[in-house]
């Protein structure tokens, strides 16, 4: 796999690694509703076992992309593969291994949460009739609805409705779980519980695709990110690499700040003092060369780390436009 980023007008990072197996992929995906282009030439890779956060402003095409990925909407153009199956023609083979919560749950308002979930479980092809009661109770407990399962759905809060929808997606073990704004309407405690569930799924090797507008949650839970803007993917890849790609700097923790700065200047490496020690600019050099210059000068190096851009700053840079109306970055992509 080659990961390339160009978020700073030409400053790039290139690294080679084996191409990962993909749980889902799209190529040239396009969806047009009459005169409105909702999704335009989306090439999306969802690595197997990853937690991929799909980010984008309202109207960027996130939900439409998810719906095409699940075979709920047929693309105008392009190809979709889900768990190795072409969609939507092979939906009946792929979807039993996929749990999904898209655009909010829909249940019978006058039935209880438990009764609604039992009806959903009855349509689950991999649940026998005798297994349904236990599967329903396990799913309710996992999302924290055990004590409210007897209440009618119409009396549920928005957050409780989201939990019940998530319980439906987790009735049986899945290879992939797709969650469209899963924390919508949840309080901070509920949001933490969803984060825990996503972490458990990741630990079990389940691929998780999460659409969210909560950048802090994505940064806390996701291993990969795809950023959509105006129906197009403007960046995708491993979260850590994306965050580091926009900040070509190395932060060195040392008690010898002045001495370290002199060593950098002697080696023509731009640098500045920081509360921790020094920050070296990596635009024209590499991290090993910085460390070598400092150690050779007798600087005590306690810790070295790449400077990271916050996800909020990266998201803003990728989705805002400059004064001439052009995007600030080229498309960043993972090439298999």
UniProtKB/TrEMBL annotation:
<dbReference type="Pfam" id="PF00005">
    <property type="entry name" value="ABC_tran"/>
</dbReference>
<keyword id="KW-0813">Transport</keyword>
<dbReference type="InterPro" id="IPR003439">
    <property type="entry name" value="ABC_transporter-like_ATP-bd"/>
</dbReference>
<feature type="domain" description="ABC transporter">
    <location>
        <begin position="24"/>
        <end position="255"/>
    </location>
</feature>
<dbReference type="GO" id="GO:0016887">
    <property type="term" value="F:ATP hydrolysis activity"/>
</dbReference>
<dbReference type="InterPro" id="IPR027417">
    <property type="entry name" value="P-loop_NTPase"/>
</dbReference>
<protein>
    <submittedName>
        <fullName>ATP-binding cassette domain-containing protein</fullName>
    </submittedName>
</protein>
<dbReference type="InterPro" id="IPR003593">
    <property type="entry name" value="AAA+_ATPase"/>
</dbReference>
<dbReference type="InterPro" id="IPR017871">
    <property type="entry name" value="ABC_transporter-like_CS"/>
</dbReference>
<keyword id="KW-0547">Nucleotide-binding</keyword>
<dbReference type="GO" id="GO:0005524">
    <property type="term" value="F:ATP binding"/>
</dbReference>
<comment type="similarity">
    <text>Belongs to the ABC transporter superfamily.</text>
</comment>
<keyword id="KW-0067">ATP-binding</keyword>
């Amino acid at each position: 796999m080659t990961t390339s980023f160009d978020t700073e007008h030409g400053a790039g990072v290139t690294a080679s690694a084996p191409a990962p197996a993909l749980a889902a992929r799209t190529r040239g995906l396009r969806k047009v509703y009459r005169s409105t282009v909702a999704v335009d030439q989306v090439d999306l890779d969802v690595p197997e076992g990853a937690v991929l956060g799909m980010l984008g402003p309202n109207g960027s095409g996130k939900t439409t992309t998810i719906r095409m990925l699940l075979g709920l909407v047929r693309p105008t153009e392009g190809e979709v593969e889900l768990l190795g199956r072409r969609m939507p023609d092979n939906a009946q083979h792929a979807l039993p291994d996929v749990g999904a919560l898209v655009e909010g749950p829909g249940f019978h308002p006058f039935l209880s949460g438990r009764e609604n979930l039992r009806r959903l479980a009855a349509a689950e092809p991999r649940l026998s009739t005798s297994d349904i009661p236990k599967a329903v109770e396990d799913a309710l407990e996992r999302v924290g609805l055990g004590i409210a399962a007897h209440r009618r759905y119409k009396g549920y809060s928005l957050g409780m409705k989201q939990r019940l929808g998530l319980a439906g997606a987790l009735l049986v073990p899945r290879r992939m779980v797709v969650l469209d704004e899963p924390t919508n309407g949840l309080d901070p405690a509920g949001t933490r519980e969803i984060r825990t569930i996503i972490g458990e799924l990741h630990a079990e090797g389940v691929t998780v695709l999460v659409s969210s507008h909560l950048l802090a949650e994505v940064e806390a839970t996701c291993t990969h990110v795809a950023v959509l803007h105006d129906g197009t993917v403007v960046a995708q890849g491993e979260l850590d690499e994306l965050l580091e790609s926009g900040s070509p700097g190395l932060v060195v923790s040392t008690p010898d700040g002045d001495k370290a700065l002199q060593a950098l200047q002697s080696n023509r490496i731009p640098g500045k003092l920081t509360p921790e020690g020094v920050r070296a600019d990596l635009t024209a050099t590499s991290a090993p060369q910085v460390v070598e210059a400092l150690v050779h000068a007798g600087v005590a190096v306690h810790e070295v780390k790449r400077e990271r851009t916050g996800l909020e700053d990266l998201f803003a840079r990728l989705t805002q436009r400059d004064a001439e109306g052009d995007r600030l970055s080229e498309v960043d992509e993972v090439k298999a």
